[in-house]
Write a structure and sequence with these properties.
Number of strands: 0
Distance between the termini: 36 Å
Number of helices: 11
Largest sheet: none
Strand content: under 5%
Helix content: 55-70%
Radius of gyration: 16 Å
Structural class: mainly alpha
Shape: globular
Length: about 230
């Protein structure tokens, strides 16, 4: 059961006000919009659904679930963090996850301290950092995953608002449409065996999104870091 305290923590950690710099990243979406592949709400929903089902969003959920299930085991967390770092398919994707994860760890050490934070690498992937802290604060995995994946989708919807451009109503309609996708992905990841090798659950079929992240690095005019 998710208590009020757990809910409050999730709202704090995954709020846009938590200063991890998420607003500066487009996850390669900026290149996709430049190419005309994402030009309206329907295309954006489809793009994000694929990421959450069979792309980077799903892989983040896998790392999150395993970090949560590590139970503060420093050696296991280090191995999960190393795999998450190596799993980034593009330099900018690695910059994105490590920058946000490291910022999350540093801020949380002061605002929401837990011994597990000292067991994390100096530069740690975002889902690993959040998953480990959620477990340390007894935040249930399923609720934490749902909140994390909602934040993943909402940040990219926010990026699309500035780039497509997309109106506020269409942005909220996109987030509403993605609710069952987020719930399904969270449920799948929560059902993983925490003692198993996380590599077995990783995978992706969103090559175009990965290529967008690579091409964004040299995009002539851009608003976002990634």
């Amino acid at each position: 059961m998710t208590t009020e305290g757990a809910l409050y923590r999730l709202m704090a950690w995954l709020s846009p006000a938590y200063p991890v710099g998420a607003f500066t990243h487009s996850h390669g979406l900026e290149w996709a919009i430049e190419c005309g592949w994402v030009r309206d709400r329907a295309a954006l929903i489809d793009w994000l659904e694929q990421l959450l089902t069979a792309g980077s969003g799903w892989n983040d959920a896998v790392f999150f679930a395993h970090a949560h299930g590590a139970g503060g085991d420093g050696a296991r967390l280090a191995a999960i963090a190393e795999l998450a770092r190596a799993n980034a398919p593009a330099r900018e994707r690695q910059v994105e996850t490590l920058a946000q994860g490291t910022a999350f760890r540093l801020i949380s050490e002061n605002a929401w301290p837990a011994d597990v934070l000292a067991a994390l690498p100096a530069d740690v992937a975002y889902p690993v950092a959040v998953g480990a802290l959620a477990a340390a604060h007894d935040v249930p995995l399923r609720a934490a995953l749902t909140a994390y994946l909602h934040g993943f989708a909402a940040n990219l919807v926010s990026a699309a608002q500035r780039l497509v451009p997309l109106g506020q109503t269409d942005a909220q309609r996109a987030i509403a449409a993605l609710m069952p996708v987020v719930e399904t992905a969270a449920g799948r990841a929560a059902a993983l065996d925490p003692a198993a090798d996380p590599f077995a659950a990783l995978g992706g079929a969103t090559l175009v999104s990965d290529l967008c992240a690579m091409r964004h690095e040299t995009q002539y005019t851009r608003l976002f870091r990634t």
